Amino acid sequence: MSCNHVVNPELWGKKREVSGTMQWLPLAQHLEDTGNVIGQLWDHWLSDGQRKFIESSLNKHVDAKKLSQFLGCIHDIGKATPVFQFRKSSSNSKDLDIALKNKLATVGFTNIDDFIDKPEGWSSSHHTITGQFIISNAGVPEGICAIVGAHHGKPLDNDSVCKSNKSEYPDNYYQSETESENSKLWQKLQNDILDWALERNDFSNVDDLPEISEPAQVLLCGLVIMADWIASNEYYFPLIPIEKDLIENQEERYRKGWEKWLQHGSKDVWESLNCYSDVSQIYKHRFGFLPNNIQSALHNVISHCEKPGIFILESAMGSGKTEASLVAAEQLANLTGRSGVFFGLPTQATSNGMFRRVENWLKSVNSDFQGEIGLRLVHGKAELNADYAHLPHGMQNMNDGCENASSNNEANNNGVILNDWFTGRKTAMLDDFVVGTVDQFLLASLKQKHLMLRHLGLSKKVVIIDEVHAYDAYMNKYLEESLIWMAAYGVPVVLLSATLPAKRRKELIKSYLLRGLGFKWSECDKSNVDFETNGYPLITYSDKNCVKQKFIENDASDNKSVSVRKITDDNLHESLVSELKYLLTNGGIAGIIVNTVKRAQEIYNACVNEFSDEEVIVIHSQFIATDRVRKELQICNMIGKNAHRPARAIIIGTQVLEQSLDIDFDVLFTDLAPIDLLLQRAGRLHRHTIERPNSLKEPILYVLGTSERYEFDKGSESIYSKYLLMRTQYYLPDVINMPQDISRLVQIVYGDNPLELQEDLTDAYVAAKREYDSDKNNNESNAETYRIENPKTEIG
Hints:
The chain is α/β, with parallel strands linked by helices. About 45% of the residues lie in helices and about 15% in strands. It has 31 helices and 20 strands. GO terms for molecular function: ATP binding; endonuclease activity; hydrolase activity; metal ion binding; RNA binding; RNA helicase activity.
């Protein structure tokens, strides 16, 4: 558009010399590019829920898209300063520096060389600092100033940082301390940029600009960073020869640049279409089966929500929580305007296992949507996952006018693709659908550079977190803070667990409702909830300021009674091998889950002396990444759902075998662990409906490492605490009726009721409790040190 105000074309924004060719980009052009890109991101990348949230977070009725474009047009105003314009090229190109210095001389600046010879404070006056000061000094609202100051990923502590920097290094802003012609000219150029940005985006003056709530500032800052990175990519928006001062066809430049980005970024914004009339229809289409009671209940609960928030689904292992959460994500995305999903899991192995299931679900989803959907696996060894490696890249999926688009889509994984632009560590969470380790979610509450990009990506999604019971006190503090921020953005969250202690259930709900949405506990309707209930399976959830619960009737076919047999560590290897030989006489698959790598290795060595190498497999964290991934895949192929099971096998592993892997043992040995984790391990016992050897038709759980004197393996105590191990052994029954006993056992073990022990054992128990409480408090305190603060949701 044509503006009365213009940005001086002689100011540079980018420069470089390669092989004797000098190139640059006027600052005016980079600001124009960034403003254009933000406009496209607003219309074609943000979710509807994000746009509505930002619009509701302003204290004035303004066009929020225009506000975002204003931010793009103003973000690098700090480059219109001598400290930036007179800096030397990173390529040490004297000719390029001279050429640009001559351009500045034509503007009217004098004594340029005198300034260049005074390097004091150059590194202290970064253009984010100078930019925040310039617009703050001009009366721009504080929230907008903070975004400009933070657009390189690190917010300034407060506005006084800018003011003190200006006081200490005035030459960096205006070339001289006194009112000189040079300083007046710098101020004019800076004012011209501000006036141009205002006019271009239909603001009369700075008084038209709104204040912005802190959560919306975070998202808008993330949007500015994303747009800046796209606009700074020379493949999308190339530099021009030093001889040229302007680009004549602006529309063609930004159209071509955007189209190039689409080849690497998100081509389509997913919308959940909600095109199924009933729950049976969607489950049949997505997964090929009808929903069970748990899946139907969650679907029904969400269908009746006015303003859905957090959902905690507690049900037994293997009860279909994954499918329930994915259908819930479709519902919640439709209700809240989200355009993606983050699925977080405890480990890399569980993330790998979930990736294929999410990919298959997405293929079905896209059969309705008929677009391109980006999917990403995010953890340290993601590149070793074969399913992830085989995803087609976005560039390969461009149709280029091909008539047979449907067959092309089918050949390219039903439109489920890998968007290359989001490959970086800081951009991964911006992709549409992300499966990864839970730390990717917990990092949303850790003080770190470019945190706003993670928030921007998460706020666009429905968040699902699996195995919520598996996190320690340190991780739980970050989980709570991340939930608080998701609530502030209006992001719906689904938490999955076999079961949770009543206190933990309440803490999670309160984090979301109180510190996230800003309600007072007294304002929340809790008339339909009992946090202390042993009811199971259970959905605890929020709808506006109401906390509700739904008890679910068990499918009778899911019930099973597990016999529990306790084994001490006395002559463990000998007695274990002897029992295995007896149990597996007629074949079968035995699982052995232990708490430490050392115990896994020792038991493996004992077993291979009596069984063949082919029959014994061990997996733990000390394998190199490629071997570990190979073993995980081997195990899933051996004893996963619908697998071709070997006649006989012994699979030994550490905690990787207890979490989310859809595997099935005929008989299971496990080290003593806290009751919730012990039950989780038991969930791998007779998990699938299959034919078993006659001697293994009844599920038996052997618990290793128990002790009449409550003296446990030191490695186990260091991981789980003696206190929880003592309470678990004390309340561990001879038979566990699953799922009926799950919640009752967890509540009693994690409760405060005293144990009736001999006097000397009582002393040991009290000491263990004291140590447990101390460790928990220390972990929570340590988490506070690096955790971000709660969001300030008020505006202005």
